[in-house]
Amino acid sequence: MALRAVEIVEVAPRDGLQNEAVMLPTAVKVELIRRAIDAGIRRIEAVSFVNPKRVPQMADAEAVMAALPHGAASYIGLVLNRRGIDRAIAAGVSEINFAVVATDTFSRRNQGVSTDESIAAWAEVARAAHAAKIPSSVTISAAFGCPFEGEVPLARVIEVVRRVAEHQPDELALADTIGAATPRDVTERVNAVAKIIGGIRLRCHFHNTRNTGLANSYAAVEAGVGVLDSSLGGVGGCPFAPAATGNIPTEDLAYMLERMGIATGLSLPRLIETATWLETQLMHPVPGMLSRAGLFPRAAV
Ligand code: ZN
């Protein structure tokens, strides 16, 4: 049966901003999150607890968490190791997300460890999350293609998913980190993974690098995926760069779903307002298109 509702997880404050050249002050990040909540967002990847030397944009994670309205939404903190989850728990996150890269080369470049070592770190983080009774999710990065190894065989993704799932995350995401996927890949991989993860919820994370992001989201929803990541304005890559790597725009995704009769719980006018506000903060146009075209029909709310 077709889905009647989809949950959108807002990732602009973390995945989006981390790829932006402009470093936003803590207060602006907090305002972005507040605006997302006002627009109806209830799960937000708010911060990451990684080495600030590697990702200086996220160095103020504790300060951002301290300034957020408690209980207004579920705040997700990205962690990559034990130290990260200890910081996340101390900062009061609602849930943690861990990232395992499906290919060794990308995993080493991104996190300095092999995929095996990353899964071992996840096992340790999973124990800590379970002990602290904090919900956890794991994003399988490069699940549709790798910038260094090229094609990622489905069998490899299945193997990584199987080993990650052994440590019982509440949710597991297939991520098209470099925006290489097409709808056919999404249908194939979602169906294959859904068969082996039992009761673990499935989420998808798409980038619009090759303009297939919305089509891929549609394919994911058709395949029964009830949770999608997206970022306000589609931020995450410079729109003037040849290899822009933004997430799919939240407002464009919500427009498509709502017009299909799939509830998101979001206010389109408020999303548009926030995407426009974010442009002024980043000092460049954002890739999202709904904020330029406007709603249809005009009077719709
Ligand atoms: Zn991403």
H-E order: EHHEHEHEHHEHEHEHEHHH
CATH topology type: TIM Barrel
Apparent shape = globular
Number of distinct helices: 12
Strand portion: 5-15%
Query: Structural class of the secondary elements?
Result: alpha/beta
Can you identify the CATH superfamily? Answer: Aldolase class I
How many E strands? 8
Q: What's the mean pLDDT score?
A: 94
Level of helix content?
40-55%
Strand order of the largest sheet: 1-2-3-4-5-6-7-8
Report the CATH architecture: Alpha-Beta Barrel
Count of domains: 1
Question: What attributes does this structure have?
Answer:
301 residues, TIM Barrel, eight-stranded parallel β-barrel, 12 helices, 8 strands, 41% helix, 15% strand
What would you say about this model in short?
The chain is of the alpha/beta class and 301 residues long. Helix content is 41%, strand content 15%. It has helices at 12-16, 26-38, 61-67, 82-91, 104-111, 115-132, 154-165, 183-194, 213-222, 250-259, 268-282, 290-293; strands spanning 7-10, 43-48, 74-79, 95-101, 136-141, 171-176, 201-206, 227-230.
